[in-house]
Amino acid sequence: MSQVFGTVRHPAYSVARTDRLGNPISLGDVLPESKAILFTGPPGMGKSSELDRAEDLAARRGWTAIRLTASANVPLEHQLTGAVRTNLDALRARFRRGAVRKLSRTVSDLTRSGRKTRVGIEYRLGGGPMPVELIGKSERDTTAYDDLGTTLNDFADELGKLTEIDGKPILLLVDNIDQASEHDRAGLNELAIHIEGLNRPVWLVAAGGSMSTSALMNASRRMSGIATTITNQFDIRELGPLTDAELRPALTEPLDRAGIAYDHAAIDDLLAAANGDPGRLRRLGQAAVAYRDPERGITVGSAATATAQVRADAAVMYQSVWDQKGTTHAQKDLLARVAAQSPAGLSMPAETGAAGPGSWQEIDRARQELVARGLLREHDGGVVTIPDRGFRDWLNDHLGQTPADSAAEPIEPGRQEAALAPAHPLGDRALVNQVFGNARELVHQVDRTDEQGRPVSLDQRTPRGTSVLFTGPPGMGTSQELSRTKAFADEQGWISIRLDASRRESLEARVIRAVQGQLRNFEGKYPAGEVKELKQLLNKMAIRTRNSMHTAQVGLGIAPGPKIRVGTAWEGVKKDSVGTTLNDVAEHLAKMAHPKREPILLMVDNLDAASRTDLVALTELSAHLHRSRKPLFLIAAGGEEATSRLLEASGGHAGVETQDAARFDVRRLTPLSAEELRPALTRPLEQAGIRFEPEAVDHLVNAANGNPSRLRTLTSAALELAGPERGITTEVATTATSRLNAQSRALYDAAWYNCAPTEKELLAKTAAHGSRGMPIPSRSEAAGPARWDLDGAAQKLVSRGLLTRTGHQIRVADPGFQDWVQTRLGVSTAQAGVALPSAVRAQLASADTLRPAHGAGGPKREDLQAKR
Questions:
Q1: What is the mean pLDDT of residues 295-305?
Q2: How far apart are CA 194 and CA 186, in angstroms?
Q3: What is the mean pLDDT of residues 266-286?
Q4: Which residues are 600's β-sheet partners?
Q5: What's the CA gap between 737 and 695, in Å, rounded?
Q6: 20, 79, 317, 640: which has the highest count of C-beta atoms within 10 A?
């Protein structure tokens, strides 16, 4: 086989990819600020090749790269164990043997997480010269709290310790995350969050298809919805089709090195057939070399023959794609309509608009899935085409249809969504932290109030009872309230125990680990006997029942000869030895805190990731604390649905709510007003000596739309653009907002895919009303079942941060997402079911012709809607 173009692993020419803003997509000698990177894109775009490059980069620089491939059948922990064992020799060569031995032991424990242990006693009677020997054995469970097994976070910690030896980076490369189970994807999310806060040169670099982002969103409740533009821990680098100019050297330079002649017109034909797909170009190039003219090299004729052969070889695959169950009726229908169009493609806003209410969602979902599979390609203006022209011709032949005449020029591959910028726009974090401070100590801390004007933070308002719950949409600051509470507790000298709920580990296990991490503080503050009892309680907490195993045997025969043994074994459960519960541990903590009247705070973040069993345990704990009335406080934080989920969990198996959840002092964080957000921006800038224009501040505050985390992200992008001398001008602020919206489009797409049809319908209606929003469905919709379906959809969307609710009004939380929805669906579809005067509809329709393709910086549709 010809090696003119090299191998897939080592190509003869590698295209240097850049994003829409001109930034390199591949990892380089200077690793990015973000410690978690995700390469995504349709099939054949080179995602695995990016991991190859990262692996080669690590080899050149003397770094360590540990690579594995996710699997549907093999858990992530097992894959890590195998990958580390494969790299043991390289790790030992770079690091100390002792350090590597500890890493190896930690990784091995990943596959035995939570294993049970037993202790027992064996007694023998007789034997030796006697012909009969009686043997008795008794064992019981004894799983200690420090034998819970290791987690992915422990593995990351060990990698971080290794980097302390020589300071060089370690890259953990994970390919094909599409194939991973949802459980494993949740683990990758948690690992990314942990690595981000590890402050060690450890990077997680993953690769997967176009649906990887939506799958990661769905796997982690903490990063649901549009808030991922702010809180997502992955630097998402989407690989799209390349331009002919970018692909040409990948074809011509290997041919030049091999001394193979070619006609430039033939190269143009091959590039046109590849249509921006580097994998397809490689197949076409190899076929062209095989069919080249012995004297003239690759001619137009040999290029045509090669193209025909590649398409003929792909015919079996075309049929298989069409026949497989994953190609739904809606997908087939859309493919047939696109194939019947001219090469200029099909306008999707027109298609969804013609479908009408209740039907357009299925068409839109088919579009999204086909784009992810690489069978369709999206262009500016919502136009879709079939990128593989061989597949388009096969479809028309298979369906017996004749495509429309070419009324417009085909869309050039490089003009559409070529390569999106990384959607993790944090800029220089050191500068941002210097200007604004960190979560523990902000330069300007907003003192929030609830709808009744009462302070929200615990350092400003004493809690009602012993359980507090902070709720709010993603990015609104619920975790910040826990950080503020912890800082207040530290000032007072109180002990605070903080942990995150997890989809991969029970709340009890998390409590055990968190309390274990605070044992030194307990030892310095409380009597040794009480701390010892606390350790014992933690040890028993891991034992729900003490299963015991008993064995009795009789051996016949004289030593040293053979013996015949006959035995029996039976298992029993000691019902009076059921271990301890979370309430028992809490009772002991409360007893320790009571004499000094110094509170102990148990803080649980990320309630959205907690299982129903964990929520039941929390409501039971809350009820227990309410009854005991001792200075142990439960402080929890979660999304908008945390209250209703706790209410449901309080009923146990019955599911009928009780007063246990009602005892939580619920403090809901709502979007901040412009007056509250403005000083959070101006005061840190003034203190840092950074100049700014008042109009620029107004722009950033309006673009933040009441979300403090989004304001920080926008200002981070503005500071990166402003540089040390320029300051934040209106131009800088506008550009930063446009960049953020463009960078967030991959996340908008992922969040949209995870929405149910009713949720998409409500998003379309709300987006059509612009920044003013609309009344909640229970007030705005006509009586009937659809009213309550939309009302439930509103609750879900607010919880995920896609909508914002203020009083009885809802609006799209992110202005960039509002613009994205309007552009994706077109005015007529976005207004489905929304009663508007015909004059306003005409104004909105005309506004669509004024809008720039990316929706940034042009006339704002809400300006027209304000005239309603």
A1: 94
A2: 12
A3: 94
A4: 495, 632
A5: 14
A6: 640
- Closest by Cα among 707, 730, 813 to 766: 813
Band (pLDDT 50/70/90 cuts) for residue 660 is: low
In this structure, are residues 165 and 133 in contact, taking their beta carbons and an 8 Å threshold?
A: no
Is the pLDDT at 43 greater than 70, yes or no?
A: yes
3-state secondary structure of 566: strand
CA 552 to chain centre: 54
CB contact at 8 A, 577 and 546: yes
CB atoms within 10 A of CB 7: 9
- Tell me the residue ranges of DSSP E strands in 693-848: 774-775, 803-806, 809-812
499 contacts: CB under 8 Å, gap ≥ 6: 510, 511, 513, 514, 603, 604, 605
Residue bearing the bigger pLDDT, 716 or 759? 759
User: DSSP letter at 667?
Assistant: E
Give the position of tokens 């704002």.
860
* Residue 67 pLDDT grade (very low, low, confident, very high; cuts 50, 70, 90): very high
Hey, which bits of 660-782 come out as E strands? 665-668, 774-775
Q: Give the residue-averaged pLDDT of 427-434.
A: 69
Task: Indicate the Cα dihedral angle 758, 762, 767, 771, nearest 10°.
Answer: -150
Residues 6+ positions from 718 with CB-CB distance below 8 Å: 696, 700, 728, 732, 733, 736
Please report the beta strands in 307-443, taking only residues with DSSP state E, as ranges in sequence order. 346-347, 377-379, 383-385
What are the tens digits of pLDDT across the range 539-562?
877 655 556 777 887 777 776 777
Phi, psi of 851 (to 5 degrees): -75, 130
Rg of the Cα trace of the chain?
31
CA-wise closest residue to 232 among 428, 427, 38: 38
pTM assigned to the model: 0.83
Q: Is 761 helix (H, G, I), strand (E, B) or coil?
A: helix
CA dist 764 and 831 (Å) reads 7
Which amino acid is it at 664? F
Neighbouring C-beta atoms of residue 624, cutoff 10 Å: 21
For the segment 67-72, the average pLDDT, to the nearest whole number, is: 92
**Tokens (6 digits) for 410:** 């085909």
Nearest to 684, CA basis, from 706, 700, 664: 700
Return d(Cα 257, Cα 285) in angstroms, integer.
Answer: 14
Token representation of residue 265: 């017109």
Average pLDDT rounded to a whole number, residues 177-203: 89
Question: In this structure, how many other beta carbons lie within 10 angstroms of the beta carbon of residue 12?
Answer: 17
